[in-house]
UniProtKB/TrEMBL annotation:
<dbReference type="InterPro" id="IPR036179">
    <property type="entry name" value="Ig-like_dom_sf"/>
</dbReference>
<dbReference type="InterPro" id="IPR013162">
    <property type="entry name" value="CD80_C2-set"/>
</dbReference>
<dbReference type="GO" id="GO:0016020">
    <property type="term" value="C:membrane"/>
</dbReference>
<dbReference type="InterPro" id="IPR007110">
    <property type="entry name" value="Ig-like_dom"/>
</dbReference>
<keyword id="KW-0472">Membrane</keyword>
<protein>
    <recommendedName>
        <fullName>Ig-like domain-containing protein</fullName>
    </recommendedName>
</protein>
<dbReference type="GO" id="GO:0008045">
    <property type="term" value="P:motor neuron axon guidance"/>
</dbReference>
<dbReference type="Pfam" id="PF08205">
    <property type="entry name" value="C2-set_2"/>
</dbReference>
<feature type="domain" description="Ig-like">
    <location>
        <begin position="20"/>
        <end position="111"/>
    </location>
</feature>
<dbReference type="InterPro" id="IPR013783">
    <property type="entry name" value="Ig-like_fold"/>
</dbReference>
<dbReference type="InterPro" id="IPR003599">
    <property type="entry name" value="Ig_sub"/>
</dbReference>
<keyword id="KW-1015">Disulfide bond</keyword>
Length: 210
């Protein structure tokens, strides 16, 4: 016999930040509509492993299970919000929220999202090889490097504020260090033409994004 319930749990969805800086807090939310049902439990998983549960009828209602890279801030977490403190590389992963309604439906739904912990470069990018003056016909050749980030930084070259022709740019493969941080180098190489000057000036710069 199949039971039909007019009121049933629905619309379970998560809000998981796509990127969080290393050392900061990550706030994950699990939103749902009980439609008149009573809540039985909310569980959070990283990958396939459960590390947090909230069951209102139990004492204590909140249970936290030790998991590398996952440090739950108990005072700020509840049945709809989960706060991870001092995130690090091991915190990166897929997080799932499983919501279960109480009797008689015992309906269960799950939703997931990906979180990545990023490390921003500690210093400004370094540009080398670019001269202070150029004339038509000269060859401009230079490099821009950005060190110690995760993931590797994206370097965009601009000429007089506009993104350069992709054919001018050569992106080198990022280099990882022992801390799993990446250094990336991007090169620029082109022949200077009159079109590269605006009011007699040629300004080359880079934009860094993670």
């Amino acid at each position: 016999m199949i039971g039909v319930f007019a009121n049933a749990l629905r619309d379970v969805r998560v809000q998981v930040p796509a990127a969080v800086r290393r050392g900061e807090k990550a706030i994950l939310r699990c939103l749902y509509d009980l439609e008149g049902d009573n809540l039985y439990s909310v569980k959070w998983y990283k990958g396939r492993r459960e590390f947090y549960s909230y069951t209102p009828k139990e004492t204590p209602a909140m249970k936290v299970f030790q998991f590398s890279g996952v440090k739950v801030e108990r005072s700020s977490s509840n049945e709809s919000q989960l706060v991870l403190d001092t995130v690090n590389a091991a915190t990166t992963g897929k997080y799932s929220c499983e919501v279960s309604a109480d009797a008689p439906s015992f309906h269960t739904l799950i939703s997931a999202g990906d979180l990545e912990v990023v490390v921003v470069p500690g210093k400004e990018p370094v540009i080398t090889g670019i001269k202070s003056r150029y004339h038509v016909g000269d060859i401009m050749r230079g490099n821009c490097s950005s060190a110690h980030s995760r993931p590797a930084a994206n370097i965009t070259w601009t000429i007089n504020g506009y993104e350069t022709n992709p054919s001018y740019v050569r992106q080198h493969k990022p280099i990882k260090d022992l801390r799993d941080l990446e250094t990336v180098i991007s090169g620029i190489h082109f022949v200077v033409t009159p079109q590269h000057f605006v009011r007699g000036k040629l300004k080359v710069s880079t934009i860094l994004t993670i």
